[in-house]
Write a structure and sequence with these properties.
The complex is a heterodimer. Chain A is α+β, with helices and mostly antiparallel strands. Chain A has two helices and six strands, in the order ββββαβαβ. In chain A, strand 2 and strand 3 form a beta hairpin. The longest helix of chain A has 15 residues. By secondary structure, chain B is of the alpha/beta class. The chains are: A alpha+beta, B alpha/beta.
Chain lengths: 93, 519
Amino acid sequence: MDKKIARTASAGTVESSDCLVTVSPSEIFLFEYSGPNSTAFKKRTDTLVRTTLEQYGIKQASITIQDQGALEMTVRARLAVALERATETTNEE
Amino acid sequence: MKMTENALGRKVPLEVPGVGAFAPYAGPFATINALNPFSGAVHKVRTAQRGNKIAASIEEAVKKSGLENGMTISFHHHLRDGDAVMPAVLEVLQKMGFKDLTLAPSSIPDAHECIADYIKSGLISRLYTSGVRGRLGKLISSGEADIPVVIRSHGGRARAIEAGQISIDVAFLAAPACDKTGNMSGSSGPSACGSLGYAMTDARYAKHVVAVTDNLVEYPLAQNISIPQYEVDQVVVVDSLGDPNKIATGATRITRNPVDLRIAYNTFLLMKASGVVRPGYSFQMGSGGASLAVSIYLEEYMKNKNIVGAFGLGGITGHMSSMLEKGLFRTLFDVQSFDTAVTSSVASNPNHTEIDSSWYANPFNAGCLVNDLDCVILSALEVDVDFNVNVLVGNDGVLRGASGGHSDTAAGASLAIVVVPSFRGGICSIKDSVKSITTPGETVDAIVTERGILINPLRADLLESARKAKLPVVEIHDLKAKIEEMTGIPEPIAYDESKVAAVVEYRDGTLIDTIYRIK
């Protein structure tokens, strides 16, 4: 049951210890990671994004994460909510 | 640069080109306990004509001061982010065509980004300071601002000035109130800032002193003379010393952040259990959220138990001056007033004493006040399993803090407590090894977090008292592992170890660490 990105949606905030995840429709996979920890947790967040998209069956999406020092579980939750908001199931169309 | 390994296993240079030779750190009290290896500098006497010392402008004062390329200039940072004097003087010096100066202020307010430009222009070619933040920190850490940087504690700077390692040629001292002969005070006038403690040392030892004021008072200045006329060569009157809103920051509110409040409460419990809160005790706290919040619990306890402390020390907050007013401390020794709630206390309370930085924390005099401290509460950017503390380098490896009185008070106080949240910005605050050592773990007795109290194994007595009082004592490695389960471990920072961004002096003048550029 693959999903596709129907609209731009985001979840999270730019408060300290949170992150703002924005998901947009795109022809290809794009990932932009910024914020104070974007060097320290580059690999970890990259893996998290790729595996999450795989679980959702999404190949094409533009993902932007502004990381203000969020824990990994926070990034995961924010990403999931942003994806839920941005997707609709192909079956319903 | 020829490097050697110091007593903490950190590589430090034996000589910093353009600055001079340094000895490696050998232990917190090794140099103090050995014969004093430094001879005092000989200071020139000078004479002045009777009458006033008013110079028409900063430029005029610079010309008369005899300042030349390659010399050392200094400023104080008591006006905080509101200070306009340092930028104004540097602008004049730049226009007059000066170059290759050593900038040796007591510290650099966050607002002074212009210094980065004057490093690039060649006006400043060596920097001695307590800390660097903001854009300046980034430029030094990236190597864009490529000059030798020496970080010193407040006590270490006083020592270096008295011993002649920092030889100030011209000090430009912002004076919130000043008369025509140079008597000046920090506690009155539109730019009042409270104590002028750090400026006092510069005034005493600089070869030439220029007072810069926006408040020329009738001669003689009658009250609270921080710096006397016989140390001041010239007086310049300007329209304004800076932005009054940023000079006069209101009293810091007590935090409502539950993490900080938990840290504060744990800290209070540890102080109580250690027995340090007793009649006649002495105390210093910082202005950070958790540190400040300790005073709520402390105040209530001292009132209930009728405990009166001997003195409060250091950077003084409005909360400390309020405790003085309530009779909870007999006196305050104030080297720097943190907020303007303090200014009226400095001006009017006879038990509120302005002290200079040498009296505060210089390890090489006949006895500084930090040596008589019973308890100090300090903050940290990060700590390590050996209880070393870093207050200079951020999680990204960039310079973003100030040494201040951290290592001085930790070495002096009987009970030095470091308060830090267990993780911050998604990164565990307890490391295997801190990125840069500001304060050696040997002088840190306990680290208090919201998830438990960590006690230095060197302090078995303190551990026993804390256990007896059933405090939440945790082993430092255990807490680190627990936090890292949540935060993960960040990728290591890529430093360029062939390029030194700054060296960190311990208070005794030895080098405790080296801060490298980031790649």
